[in-house]
Amino acid sequence: MAAQMTDAHRRFLQVLMSHGIMEGSEARKLHRRCCEIHKAYYAHDKLDDFISTINSHLQPLFMQIRKGMSEGDGRAHYALVNLAETEITKMASDYTENELELFRKTMDLIILSENGFASSTDILNLADQLKTKKMKKKEAEQVLKVFVEDKWLSERNGEYTLHTRCIIEMEQYILSNYQDVARKCNICHSLAIQSQVCESCGIGMHLPCVRKYFRAQTEPRCPQCNDFWSCDIPGTKQ
């Protein structure tokens, strides 16, 4: 039988719903604050159990709090995911058809790229090729800005990638729709968009997972085939 939902659980869920996604340290602070306010049992290492209780009550509503990882720095994040609506249809109520088409095409560019990024130039060049309704570049720039604000995309120096929230929400969609190119990280087993790939056997690893895995090794070797790992290890001095 599922553990009882308390006011502490409800407050946690409400705050997470208003944020959409929350970094792990923030979620831990929120967990503590909710338990203190409502005088509920608190243990600093029980966040995942606390979330599991919420999830058991969200199940009939086809919703779930999922844990994921930021591909940039490897930090844990928690996002509230709607399981009833799959893939990009969950975005349909918030965006127009041509905005969704631009998002799909941007996703194509990012996932099919070698480094998990797409340049703003390449994305904006798609604006007047949309089948639904062409967009002016100025308009497309504004739409990209909204995708970043809504945490579907992340932008760095004119380069776009999928936001952690998007990866957590759309992992299954991406894995089934990009079967030839989408891969899971060999270390943490979650979807890897920004990754390094073994030249010998083709397995992929997130950059933070690469850094962590090879930290203690004098000679980096692939965890799958044991061949020399030829990519530069992030965070090491050359």
TrEMBL record:
Keywords: Chromosome, DNA damage, DNA recombination, DNA repair, Metal-binding, Nucleus, Telomere, Transferase, Ubl conjugation pathway, Zinc, Zinc-finger. Residues 185-226 form the RING-type domain. One of its GO terms (cellular component) is Smc5-Smc6 complex. This is Non-structural maintenance of chromosomes element 1 homolog. It comes from Fulmarus glacialis (Northern fulmar). It catalyses: S-ubiquitinyl-[E2 ubiquitin-conjugating enzyme]-L-cysteine + [acceptor protein]-L-lysine = [E2 ubiquitin-conjugating enzyme]-L-cysteine + N(6)-ubiquitinyl-[acceptor protein]-L-lysine. GO terms for biological process: double-strand break repair via homologous recombination. The keyword Metal-binding applies.
